[in-house]
What does this fold into?
Amino acid sequence: MKTYTHILFDLDHTLWDFEKNSEETLYTLYDQFELSRHGKFDCDSFYRKYKFVNTRLWDLYNKGRINQKELRENRFVKTLLGLGLAEHELPEGIAEAYIEMCPTKTALFPHAHEVLAYLQPKYGLHIITNGFREVQHVKMNSSKLHGYFQEVITSECCGYKKPDRRMFEHLLDRIKVKPEDCLMIGDNYECDIEGARDAGIDQVYFIPEKSKGRKRPAPTYEISCLSELKQIL
It folds into this structure.
């Protein structure tokens, strides 16, 4: 089995359970902003619509077609207008409340701390994420992840976004290692797997819920639970 010296992790959807934390936040905001008074949608519909809109806006952001400001401003507007609210009914401050509350949530994927504690004595561990700098650090502090990692590279700090190989090269330059010494672990096939492959880095495709059809070319490894990393590393 190949020997690595450094392990690169994506954060959202890989270690930090974005869906669970976001869902909890949105249910709170539904009550806090009294969205039920409009009588047009329930809390579950609010969550499902937001998830749909946010996923597509993040895809546009990762492809460089919208910026951070547009993503943050548009996701609640598009969600609530799509659920039938008129523009004058849009609650002021809900986008800001989400940004303030969600990163403080602490749900991680099963075995995250256990696996990181197992890996830390053996490898240099690093985060490489397209998430926004200030938000990612709040997430890591709240969920007690910071102590495991040596470098936390965000797209804002280096000027590139995954899957751009230059983002991976920026990290490699900082830690002074070769691509073949590293292994990238992430949930996004395009950003994490194809991006790492393009930079010459082996990959672990993390898919907790098996998707229909297999991605090609296949990643170096594929797992559905973080605990499986112990079999690889």
